[in-house]
Specification:
single chain, 14 helices, about 50% helix, about 300 residues
Amino acid sequence: MTFRSILASRPWRRLAPVLGVLGLSLTLLTASPVRAADDDRTAAPALWVITDADSTLYLFGSVHVLKPDTEWRTPEIEAAFASAEDVWFELANPDDAAAALPIIRQHGLSPDRPLSSRLDAGDVERLDAAARAIGASAALMDPMRPWFAAVNLTMAQLIRAGYQPGTGVDMILLARAREDGKTIRAFETLDQQLGLFAAMPEAVEMAFLRHALDGVDQATEQVGGMVAAWRTGDAEGLERLLVAEWKTDFPDLYQTLLTDRNIDWADQIEARLEGSGVTFVTVGAGHLVGPDSVQAQLARRGVVARRLE
């Protein structure tokens, strides 16, 4: 089966390009499911602001996949976004499938080393069972790199449960920024993001896939708990779900996918503050909580982010 036929088949055709793959993976590394709060609770996602003599910069945590009826906007978020001249995202073009295809081919497929050659018979059976639950099969996923198979399994489960990348915060705000003619900037390229996964040691990559197989049935509940904490501004709950266990269980990945990127983004934000004007930054919510968050990296540089109440 060719690369294009893999992505054209169900359900993979809905998963290209890989949207917010790193932020989603932070969520799905949570070890234990958490019950979601009632949906009728007032929306109050956390929003931070940094100010100096001639600059204002807002920091807002994103959830990359949401159910279409999830309410998360507040007057404070709306006003902050409206006032911004430039808007920063993790990626500037997450919806550009044509640009994503060769990058996914490079980093997400390994037909010369199929999954069946890396997994034992028991794990192949588990992979096939998980894949068939979403209308695929182990044979369909065989050309995929382990990390790419893991993300696709969990993403497909979420789509079946009603979550959609197109209604995630990033895509909604990106569309609005384009409509309003705002300057759109990005911290990274898709090649940089997926390259981080491709650079995993094989043992870590295989552990990542097995972890996904262990928790595939809990993915929806895990994301539901995370969305509830994010939507109600529960920063401590988000830290527990997105940071604490991951830092303990996957310390190397935590350093690479979270801490190192937060340091880089803090450098870019600090450089932006040397200019003037109003900026709105939205990145995965896991990057804005915990001891190694973007705000923590900025504080080490003497830049204070204040949470708006």
